[in-house]
Amino acid sequence: MRWSEAFIPTLRDDPADAEAVSHKLLVRAGYVRQLMAGAYSLLPLGQRVCQKITRIVREEMDAIGGQEFKLPALHPAELWKRSGRWEAMGEEMFRLVDRKGADVALGMTHEEVFATLAGELRSYRELPQIWYQIQTKFRDEPRPKSGVLRVREFTMKDSYSLDADAGGLDQSFQRHFEAYRKIFRRCGVETLAVEASSGSMGGSESIEFMVESDAGEDLVASCARCGYAANVEKATSRLPEAHDGPGLPAPEKFPTPGVRTIEDLARFEGGAPADRQIKTLVYRVDDTIVLVLLRGDHALSEQKLLDQVEARELRPAGEAEIRAALGAGPGSLGGVGVEGITVIADFALDGRRDMTTGANQDDHHLRGVDVERDVPVKYWLDLREVRDGEGCPACGQPLRVVKAIEVGHIFKLGTRYSEALGAQVQGEDGSSRPIVMGSYGIGIERGMAAVVERCHDENGIVWPVSVAPYEVVVTVVKPTDPATIEAGGQVYDALRAAGIEALLDDRDERPGVKFKDADLIGIPYRVTIGPKGIAEGKAEIVRRATGEVRSVDLQKAADAVVESVLEERSFAPTV
User: Fold this and answer.
1) 252-381 maps to which CATH number?
2) What's the pTM value of the predicted model, to 2 decimals?
3) Could you give the 3-state DSSP secondary structure of residue 180?
4) pLDDT one-digit tens code per residue, 168-194
């Protein structure tokens, strides 16, 4: 492709609304353009990158026996109602009513549809199966942000394993795990595989593949010593042993005028430090008011609570609901002596004495609280969010908590969807049994953005060869000079003949503009050809990732670049 004929609308300045590096650079370098909030057009460079990521994904899925489908994006509500997710998905699902009055939705994912198709399988002898597609998904994100990292329309590779039993699912899950490792390595990014919440997908186990980035919306806890890693929605940690005093024979009420927060009580004369307070949160779990207790300096992971109580709906209670249940407002709440209300407590409070908490009377607290003696805890759960520096649950070394981007997620679904949609096969003993399913997703555009987050510098994007839109840009310094444009064209033709994806920058622009544009869009190699070099029989080769500059014989320039590119290309497809 000649740059003079290409649509590459580079910009000098960052978009005003962009915070993530990938958002800034993908817009500035002419890869994407926003149509509306959460909806982006892929321009030719962006399309080429996504096609390369898609090709890598397809090759690795085919290598583990995947069969590619193309399913509708428009789904009848009845399928989602049968699985129980029509209501569970809430406002993130795009819903509409067709001209006949039927409820339909735009697909967020395709478990229900694939489970329906799996109903055509008859015998365990037809299993295992791995089915996949690469298709558009729709989610009505409440706050689209960070360019293509969080959007309302995106491309996903979603695959589904179908097995006769749990042992088969374990094998399919592991095959996907290994395929995902290869996919992300071929795309040029290292990922951390972490334990994760299965959320609305359900199932017994899930693993996220995360790329560390300040633009990430997830927090991941990991241990450099033993390799433990988990999303904070799932992570646990070791806490130092608490040393409590003997406490009091019974809780003692004391006035705390104006005290509304943990910090207020820590500063209040006669109060208590945050780690000696009991934080009381009030939630409505489905139709029931529940008290959730944590140590004062700990934060609640709502996802942990949601996963463990297995509720359809969970939300913080409003002030009116709180007063009706406890007789006081937020800031003066506690679990001491409550009746008729379910109390759930975090494990970090187990066995604690001499604690301070709200008295369920405005502007009053209780000191000397013994949790076992004074608080009617019904359920003990792991509810707190792990923090940086806490002990690894496996080896005790300090955990590191960092922001990360989720680029892939794999789930063991079990029989949830096959039972709901009637996907059963005849077992070896002749009995009918539900198919055991797994679900596995990779976001294509998000993958592109994650590569940019990890592969950039102050001058622009630094693409790995495996996913770069072009592998080489041939920059002709003075295209108005016949000898120079001819020499540039010869190198360009030789590269293409050797199977190298090349871009010929034949624009009548200043050399500085061309060099800046080449760095901005991130082409891995630049071959510079100008009148001075031609006079000396030389060409200049620059490697984008390192800035390394080589002067080579003009006649050998194409061969030198071909050799370098082939060295950097990803390993051969494993099909």
Assistant:
1) 3.90.960.10
2) 0.91
3) helix
4) 999 999 999 999 999 999 999 999 999
